[in-house]
Write a structure and sequence with these properties.
37% of the residues lie in helices and 12% in strands. It is built from 15 helices and 14 strands. It is globular.
């Protein structure tokens, strides 16, 4: 046994711990927490060396003018965390496996000896930031619905019914694939509204369309396999494929949607093909029926899967709705992805994935292990909202509103946007794409607009391999009242002219 006199101790009168009393100011926190933090930090920065014996509880309490019970409780807490170890000779600082450098060391020396930050996954370097992270309330921001027009009272009633019917059992984990009531309601709605062929057992509830796309990648691809994405196209699909270590091949889009040739199938055969056929995002084109059928046929021939993101399909402004690819032919190799972020509200975080009938039994067990179920009251409320016809009534109101706003935005652009431009889209959804000559820097215009709380997205930011035609602004009209369009467009016109690249500049 080491003699008591040989143990290093902390001389109480000279201790740095006693140089300053604990704070008694309002908001400073309990005495026990203050003392705990002071001792812990001293141990971590090396002021209290391993093996040092702390003052006795009575002596420290008297020196700091606090209760002895406070000191005793603090020592017990530190011992439970492993910072100190009590024995018959007192309370001593434990030997830390990786002690922090002393605060008396020079900062530069300490930083030089600090270990490097552990490396992140290489795939993260492939995921680039979005060109704009504007707040949801900024004008002309794409992808934001008219939240002020959402029927909160009807949604509250659905939530109340969900809580009453679900009761306390709905506080626990549910079916990992989603609430049966919601899966059945979605299957019925998609059959009528979108021509999707599915049974409730093929529907998987996800936390938005982004998670549904990520599930497709995790279930159906292996690292290094090829994924096709539209270019310019949805950045979230690229991020999901990058996170799955896929090799991404950007595929151009034109007025008929995704462009694919026989040479593409031979040179870069894909495992996954991501497409937005009903309303290409962001260009607004519709994938023609000839290209849809050819894509399905080639996917079957090459063993590929098509991920159909039915983006904005519920808000068709001209003619009849475009039927989903998934329902065009029997047993199509298509996984259908949808979300309630635009049709309801973004924070709901409910989306869905419709699996092909022959695939659903194969992936059920992996899905049950990968998912846990959740948002059960919200899922039950969404099922009630659909079955009570509130959802279809809400969609009808929003179609009329967005149609009127799109028309008003077109008029404002025609009257007040005094730079050369063309407009894409407008037949569906909540945004228009304004293409600009290359001399107008779309990223600078968007950055300058943010200072005025106007949030268009630069079209070039959607492209992996930008071309001169990928220059323009994506203007959302869902969240902006029509009476604001004229002053907003006048301001954008001024900013565009200011961002024009002059010859020789």
């Amino acid at each position: 046994m080491v003699p008591r006199s040989a143990l290093p101790t902390l001389p109480v009168p000279q201790s740095a711990l006693l140089e300053a009393p604990l704070s008694r100011e309002p908001g400073a926190g309990p005495m026990q927490r203050q003392l705990h933090d002071r001792l812990k930090n001293a141990i971590l920065d090396g002021s209290l060396a391993p093996g040092s014996r702390l003052p006795g509880s009575r002596a420290l309490a008297e020196a700091l003018d606090i209760s002895r019970n406070t000191v005793t409780a603090t020592y017990e807490h530190l011992a439970a965390e492993g910072y100190v170890r009590p024995d018959r000779q007192g309370t001593r600082v434990t030997e830390l496996s990786s002690p922090a450098p002393s605060k008396r060391e020079r900062t530069s020396e300490r930083m030089a000896r600090s270990p490097a930050v552990p490396a992140t996954a290489l795939r993260l370097a492939k995921i680039s930031p979005s060109p704009s992270r504007a707040d949801m309330g900024a004008a002309l921001r794409p992808g934001v619905p008219a939240l002020s027009h959402f029927p909160l009272a009807a949604w509250r009633r659905s939530l109340d019914r969900a809580i009453r019917s679900g009761g306390s059992p709905a506080l626990g984990y549910g079916d990992p694939l989603g609430e049966p009531a919601l899966r059945a309601a979605i299957a019925r709605h998609l059959s009528v509204a979108r021509g999707v062929r599915c049974e409730p057992g093929q529907v998987v509830i996800a936390e938005g369309a982004q998670e549904a796309i990520s599930l497709c990648v995790r279930l159906l691809s292996n690292p290094g396999e090829t994924g096709w994405v539209e270019d310019p196209g949805y950045r979230g699909a690229k991020a999901a494929m990058h996170a799955g270590d896929m090799r991404i091949v950007p595929m151009r889009v034109d007025a008929e949607g995704l462009c694919v040739s026989e040479r593409d199938w031979q040179k870069n055969p894909p495992r996954l093909v991501y497409t937005t056929p009903s309303h290409q995002y962001p260009a607004g084109s519709v994938l023609s029926i000839a290209r849809r059928l050819e894509l399905i046929a080639q996917a079957r021939r090459h063993g590929a899967w098509i991920v159909e993101d039915d983006y904005d399909s519920e808000f068709r402004h001209t003619g009849e709705p475009i039927v989903a690819m998934q329902g065009l032919v029997d047993d199509a190799p298509v996984l259908y992805v949808g979300s309630f972020s635009k049709t309801m509200f973004p924070s709901l975080r409910l989306g869905f994935l419709v699996l092909p009938a022959r695939l659903a039994p194969t992936v059920r067990t992996p899905l049950e292990e990968m998912l846990r179920g959740g948002h059960r009251y919200e899922q039950l409320a969404m099922a009630d909202f659909i079955e009570s016809s509130q959802f279809s009534r809400h969609l009808g109101r929003m179609r009329r509103l967005y149609r009127d706003r799109q028309h008003a935005l077109r008029l404002a652009l025609d009257r007040h946007f005094k730079v050369p431009h063309t407009i894409d889209g407008g037949y569906c959804g909540m945004h228009l794409t304004v293409r600009l000559p290359e001399r107008f820097d779309d990223r600078k215009i968007a950055a300058d607009a943010l200072r005025h709380r106007i949030a268009p997205t630069p079209l070039s930011g959607f492209a992996m391999q930008p071309m001169p035609s990928d220059n323009g602004l994506v203007l959302g009209y869902g969240n902006t009242p029509a009476e604001l369009f004229e002053p907003l467009v006048r301001r954008l016109s001024q900013l565009a002219r200011a961002a024009e690249k002059r010859d020789g500049a």
